[in-house]
Design brief:
The protein starts with a helix and ends in a 7-residue tail after the last helix. The chain is 63% helix and 2% strand. A two-stranded antiparallel ribbon has the order 1-2. The chain is mainly alpha-helical and 368 residues long. The longest helix is centred in the C-terminal third of the chain and has 24 residues. The chain has a domain of 233 residues. Helix 8 runs parallel beside helix 10, helix 9 packs antiparallel against helix 10 and helix 13 crosses helix 14.
Amino acid sequence: MFWIIGGGGIFAGLASLTGWAPLVWWERQLHHVEWHGFAFEDMIFPLFLFIAGISFPFSMAKRMENGASRKSLYMQIFRRGLILVLFGMIYNGLLNFDFVKTGSASANGVLSFDFSTMRFASVLGRIGLAWMFAALIFVNTGKRNIRIAWCAGLLIFYWLLLAFVPAFDNPGADRFSMEGNFTSYFDRLFLPGKLYKGIHDPEGLLGIIPATATAMLGMLAGQFVMWRKEGLTEQRRTGYMALAGVVLAGIGLLWNIIFPINKNLWTSSFVCMAGGLSLLLFSLFYLMIDVWGYRKWSFFFTVIGMNSITVYMALRMVKFAYTAGFLFDGVIRRFPDTWTDFLGSCAYVATGWAFLYFLYRQKIFLKV
């Protein structure tokens, strides 16, 4: 969430200001790859879904300990998934209706609900549905090996689907291209409203299948953190998770040879690559914060992460740039022009963080 609220702009401003090669390289990582390939920016979305998966075994165990029925657990899963779908539609402008004049003497106009121009697919919708299906699989499979088999099965099925089924409106095209893949073709047929890229939507319907595996990887990590076994120290637990992350990323790189890493299609190789790196990052922060106890440095990020849905929605609805300019433009203008991008990004992040810190102090958290 730090990168989403403007952290990328700070590093881009530093790269422009200093010209330092490592910062210039990192700035390039803060842009999505156009089609095939992988950059750090492509990892933010699956990492969010991975973390949502990690939390589920803990919340499920707590609910079961408190005597919650299986029916109530299902209701909570469905409610959370569908609310995120609704939030995603609101983010895309569901409530931004047009007021159209009718020309009638008895009325000045009517609200126009033109859903044909609305985009129904969304980041939050993908998170909600993928997490929901993963949670349903997790609840109904007791053994870890069965859950791993489910995860692998989803990824292999999706690979075979895209490898052997063409887009029937363009059967001669590359089956992993934007115009020739079956996922985009399926959305052109069945996804209502408009697609983000005209003929393709990166948060379309069939992509929920591999995204469910992403959420399941997080749930498996959360289950492993909860697992207690004699001789399994926290250092060993961290090492096992890091090793699993390396293996998973390696599988993604090997799979990339025949099934390209592609965030837009959420390919199975992308799931493995992003999942492996997510597990490596989780292992690192778990080691620093939970095992070694180095917590104070993370407070800045805790304030952001505790209200992740809030800040994601607020960035769409609140003009933080206006407030940042009102508060800091006078100071920024006293610096040379070469500093403008860097200082402006710092001001933007500071404004957003101050808003979240106020909510944090008031114990106001948007939970779904």
